[in-house]
Specification:
- Among the domains are: 242 residues, Cytidine Deaminase, domain 2 (3-Layer(aba) Sandwich); 96 residues, no CATH class.
- Helix content is 23%, strand content 19%.
- It has 15 helices and 24 strands.
- An eight-stranded mixed beta sheet has the order 23-17-16-11-7-8-6-24. A four-stranded antiparallel beta sheet has the order 1-2-10-9. It has a three-stranded mixed beta sheet with strand order 4-20-21, with no helix packed on it.
- Helix 6 crosses helix 11, helix 7 crosses helix 8 and helix 9 packs across helix 12.
- The longest helix has 16 residues.
- It comes from Armadillidium nasatum.
- Belongs to the NPL4 family.
- GO terms for molecular function: ubiquitin binding; ubiquitin protein ligase binding; zinc ion binding.
- InterPro entries: MPN (IPR037518), Npl4 (IPR016563), NPL4_C (IPR007717), NPL4_Zn-bd_put (IPR007716).
Amino acid sequence: MIYLFKLKKIQASNGNVTHSSTSSSSGNSYEPMPSTSSDIDMSIPSTSTTYPIVQQQTFARKSSVTEDEVDQILSKMDGKVERKRNPMLCRHLGNSRCIHCTPLDPWDETLLKEPNIKHLSFHAYLRKLVSGVDKGKFSCLEDISCKIKPGCKDHPPWPQGICSKCQPTAVTLNRQSFRHVDNVTFENPNIVERFINYWRVTGHQRVGLLYGKHQPHLDVPLGIKASVSAIYEPPQEGSRDYVKFLPDPKREIVDEVAKGLGMQCVGWIFTDLVPLDPSAGTVRHLRHADNYFLSSHEVITAAHFQTKYPNPCKLAPSGNFGSKFTTVIVTGDKENQVHMEGYQVSNQCQALVRDDCLIPTKDSPELAYIKESSAKQYVPDVYFKEKDQYGNDVVKLGRPLPVEYLLVDCPVSTPNEPVFTFTNSNNPFPIENRFLEGHLQDFSSLSQYLQNFKDSQFLEAVSDFHLLIFLATMDMLPLRKVTLASKVERETEVGITVEQLILASASHGDISSSSSTISSKAIQNNEFFHSKWWSAIYSCSWTY
């Protein structure tokens, strides 16, 4: 079982997060890890440190906020759920409607009783807030703050003094009734299979970043789905029990390449697989209701990622509310088969982690711990409700705190008809940062990969996310922006150099460089230079 411990800095382009197996842990120690809180720094945007406590504010739209494309699409949709005529209850003509067949609002409780709809979609939640007579005049998208308001002149600064005007209020945790993403869809099973193959070969756990786009989810009223097209594997150290992120100086270039292809980072994925019967291909069922779904370390890491990727919202006083960033776990199910589970952490959890109030416990992955106030930091009390032995609701202080109160589940699926944004090849280009024989990215592997394509298939050959990253980040070629409309496209130094290096690697590796493989004509033809793949590479801000 994987959990994250001793979180280090995770910068916008890299990080040092370690997560370790709890399968060998024992005991029920609820002792917090005070050293963790001082190490956590996820390079949160500066705007995240000045979130006010919003009380009784109206939904004043911020015209300066640019919402995501999917939010703009959903804001223009009606969202009504059509219902068919009920033959038992409807007594009217076919061109009429009654209470039994009139369209339902997307937040109607009748829809929540459906087996596949557990949470309201975020846009359905917004419609519910503004649906009353007051049109949401006295509603607000509450973004809690656990920090002392700065600038109070009525007393000395903390710890010498504090007052009711600058003191953050106590927090009562509630189950979040909505979710920002209603489904995570992998375009095809090959995306996940290639990711899991690393564990199958080495037995080591692996972490990756999901790249894709957000789209309307038609199965949920006003829903949003994250469509994943590729998995980028950042530099990391892994073993059977843990994974540690390493600095990634090329992360910004990866984001630029993805942006040029119309994609963005929509989540992260990691494995927690322990073999049960290697001959049968079964794995242990470790995450369930009697144990835990996400450990406190993983919850804190997910909250940091969500803070780093905020969700723009015009109806939020700060301009951001929550996040569309999702967490996907590859683990064993109750039938001991490999499957995927998706989660997000609640907005309350995101605020607690952002303000450095939540830390993990040592030996109980299902529990987190609210820090106690110190001379350096004031921490408000955090409460949660649970039922006692008599079935009564009891309010308890979050020391410790079950992390299940902080989770929002998100289904993960693959379509019945696979979609391939990138080339579906039987011999794909190696994935980055895999330091294994046969998995290295170099000109030898590039030459071997291009052997599978003819000149007429050059665009198909370069339609590989990992190949584009390799071309955009390799140090051997000083790639710079060129004028694609010039007449020297066919004779550009980049194309000639690429060809010479490929041929040299091919001859060194005794690989045939026959005319059936891609030649300089294909490398330097106009079709490639005007394609979106070339534009994605040259959309980066190069620094050499």
